[in-house]
Structures are given as C-alpha cells and as structure tokens.
Amino acid sequence: MTSVVKVLIPSGALGIGFDRAALATGLAHAPDIIAIDGGSTDSGPHYLGTGTSKYARSAIKAEWSDLMAAREQVGVPLLIGTAGTCGADSAVDWLLDITRDIAAERGYSLRVAVLKSGQEPVDVADALRAGRLSPLEAAPEISPELVMSCTHIVALAGAEQIQAALETGADIVIAGRTTDTAVIAALPLARGCAAGAAWHGAKIGECGALATTNPNSGTILIEFDDQGFTVVPMADDAAATPRTVFAHMLYENSDPYILYEPGGHLDVTDADYSALDDRRVRVTRSRWVRSDHYTVKLEGARVGGYQTVSTVLLREPRYVREVSTWCARIRDAMQQRIDAEGYRDVSIDFRIVGENATLGELETDRSEAHEVGVLAIVTAPDQALANDVAKTLNPMLLHFPLTPHEPLPTFSFPFSPPESERGPIHEFCLNHTLTLDDPMDAFRLDVVEI
Known about the structure:
Number of strands: 19
Shape: globular
Radius of gyration: 25 Å
Strand content: 25-35%
Oligomer: single chain
C-alpha cells in the first residue's frame, strides 16, 4: 500500500488570511507539503492585463512570511501556484522579490524553484495558425491579430509541471498560472496515490476550509493514499461532512461530476463519501480518465479601451422613481452628439446604484429606494476622448429634465470634478486550449539559490 501523503492547505488563496492556530494544528500533523493558491480570474481581467497582484504587498509579505516560517519548522516544501493573483511572469518575479526580502530578514538559506507560464503572443499566434488552439465553450472568435494585441497570456500548468519543480529539491516553489488543483495533486500523484483520489481531493481542498462547516477558518489537511483521500479540518470549530465535501464539486464547475485538467478529466460519478467521525470525511472510488492529447488552457487579456466615470446623486422622488427613463433619455441625447462629432467606438453605460446595479435585468427585488446614485461610464479608444465625452455629459447629469417642457432640475455631484479617470481597462479574450507535445513545452523552470 502506498504511504499516506499529507497536504496542508493554509487557505483558499494567499492574501485573504488564515487562522494561525489552525495552521499550527496542521503543522503538528506532520504534513509532507504546504500548498496554497495565489489567485485566479475571479477578480476580473485587470490583474492579468497589467501583470499585477490584487492584494497589497504588505498583506502578502505578512502571510508568506508566516508560511515560510512554517516550512522551516517542519522541513517540507512550500508551494504556491498562480503567484501574484494572475500568474503572469511579472507577478512571479514580484513574489520572488518578497521571498528574497523575507529570507534576508530572517537569515534563511533557500533553494527556490521558479516555474513561469507566460506565453509570447507571437508564439500563440503561430500555434493558432498551426491548428494547435481549440476553443472552449463560449470562447470568443480570435485571430492572430487579436492574439498579438494581448498584454499578457498565460498557460495553466498541471501536475506534471509542478512535479518537475518539486524534483529540483526546492524548499519553495513559486509557480505562475496553474490550475487550482495542480498544486495539491502533484505530490500525491508523484508518490503513487490513486490518480482519481489525488485530483478529487485537490478539488475539495483548493479553497481551504470552504468545503467544511466553517469556511472562514481557512486551514485544512487532505490525506491521500492509493484508495482514496480523507478531509481533515484543522480549526477546532470546523467539520467536514459528506454534504460539505460533495457540494464543493459544484463550486466554479459546470458539471458536478466531471472536472477537466491538463492531460485528462476527473469523474466522481461513482464516488463514495463516508463520515469517519463528526469531523472527518473519507472519499473513495473517484476515477481519473486520461486524454489522448495533452492540452493546457490559455488565458489572455488585452486593453479594451479607456474609461472615465462620473457619479451623480438623485433624491427628488419623481426622478428616483423614473431614473431608468432619465438615464435612457440622456443616453439618447448623448448618442446624437457622439454621432454628430463622428466619434467611433465610444459607449456610455449607466449603473444605477440603488436600482438593480448589481444584477441588472436579473434582479427580482423591485422595491423602491428614496435616493439613487448613477454611475455614467464612458468607454473610448483613448483616455482623452473618454474624458472629452464625459465632460460633454457633465451638464446633462446635473440638469437634464425628464420631459422637454419642465423647469431644469439640479442634482448633486459628490465630487468636484465629478469625472474620474479609470485609465486603460482590460478584457479577457482567450478561452482556448493549447495542444502540447510535451507538458513542459509551454513552461520555463529555473532554480534560484537565496
């Protein structure tokens, strides 16, 4: 029988915090590796578009410092995937610099494996021409020209690339964009644990304690073997149940039974979930199905325009009640001016804060508010044009009447000037897979001695 492989996951992502007492409990269980995710696409395209982190450097440094100390205490590898929120090469370098700072402050001597997943647009464009890119469901239409417009493109590493990094004997592995599960599944797979169990347990543990009765506690331990895996929450007030564990297959997944990864897919149709006691759950009979071809997902972002946002507040009851009509009339009036000026690719969007601003047409609660805020969002090909259109819009936001023959109203701007530049905005433009002859073909691995 394969020996048990213990993976300690401090939290769902570096930067969101974790329970230090639960982490200490996890260290007492003698884990074989400490693995954590660094980010995802959840927060939108800005971070991949700019190659920057969502989280403050100070927050990342504080948490990473604690995890580096934990690694020193138990003498096992510390691994992070999707470093710096987006996993771009610049974000990997950013976390490597933080690691250097901490090592210098604490006197650590470290071997760090750096796995980068950034792609050159010209190489991706060539792969598109060669027929090695395949669209995923609802993927946008792409062309070599669109690919070349991307500011950053990353490939999502799987277990094979993480295993290559671990084989260097690194104390710390800092990886660019990876699948959320790869950082957890890699070591159990390398040590002969059941492949279905390795990928399924990694899916359950990807967000830390989210698959328990106390999601905010953060830290969880997954124990893998050649038959299945066991979920063990580390916080005293957290428990795993068959329901909380199975339910996590629904999280960010279009199919509660199938999960696609580089090189194959996980099938949990016949999985068995059993409560070992009032806190632990044992899962068996998960199945891994290999693909005929090895593919990795690509994510790309590009500048989608430049924005200027104006904010106006309405309290007069009639205008509050008919704010949607008011916005529609302003939009029509502005569109006439935009057309008259010959501006191209300019859009104006209104977000009514207090009336369906979050869900838009999907909103079911139609109760009235006593005041609303209106965000007027101007998007244009360059910042100067966005600013110009927003300033043209300014007097309408302040005085535009509901009907043509009534006195001019006056509303409230909370700021002076009311226009705020957002600068370049980014959009995702790739949702495709790239076929590789070798899993390492799209990745670069270096070892840094600190």
